[in-house]
Fold this protein.
Amino acid sequence: MNESLSVNHLLGIKDLTPTDIDLIFKTADNFKTVINRPIKRVPTLRDITIANVFFENSTRTRVSFEIAEKRLSADVINFSSASSSVSKGESLIDTVNNILAMKVDMVVMRHPAPGACIFLAKNTKTQVINAGDGTHEHPTQALLDAYSIREKTGSIAGKRVLIVGDIMHSRVAISNIFCLNKLGAEVMVCGPATLIPKHIEHLGVKVEYDLKKALQWCDVANMLRIQLERQDIKYFPSIREYTMQYGLNKRLLESIGKEIVVMHPGPINRGVEITSDVADHAQSIILDQVENGVAIRMAILYLLAMKTNANSIV
């Protein structure tokens, strides 16, 4: 492949160009055919060793990356901070350098500190993929969300995309805003005023506090989970009151007078931000997002590995 990414790491959507994103999507199209055939493995990365280094709990993202790596025939090392020397006081750099000394080629990292992946990329000699760093970014989630919108609606440019929920603490929301803006979509955020960051309009988004009005405006609604683990104070009176004001149920979905696409990055708190009858509705593409996540992560792993090989040849 002659085309290559403009970056050596995937640290955030902010670093990608629209051309990069288009290349990732085209590559994911090819890998999606691979994961839907009887033999789901290709030998593309059989000489590459990848470490999944997770300092926060994760199921979907970690498993999605692991499946993507194994579909590409990479050697995979899974690292959990709970059972590591980090719990004994070892630094991030020392931990990763010890892993790299075992001849690891690429690190996929999730960390609770914003900017941890940028710090790692600057201080180690390895490629880094950000699997979520604090409230900073979650680039692969934004890419798979945008890819899923494109797959469902045919294009992203000109689409009206609504992001509902805890915008203040959500790295998914920020990465989605950056990605959708680069691809020409209109973006609106909706949620309690206490969970909408001040001056967020400067990121090129609209703000609406009435969920029904926001749903009537949009073509796609991405319902976010309330990030209770990142909230140090109470931002709304109760979960019940949040659900009454900002939860999406079937009655509300059917009352807006048009069909919209419903998304959720997971994990879903059924009955809080979204009810089961909406999560399982024909307009929901939540399971499509999960499938597309593997194809997108395969594309990113492949493109970054090819970039390194090209540089080493030169």
User: Anything to note?
Assistant: The two ends are 15 Å apart (CA to CA). The chain has a mean pLDDT of 91.
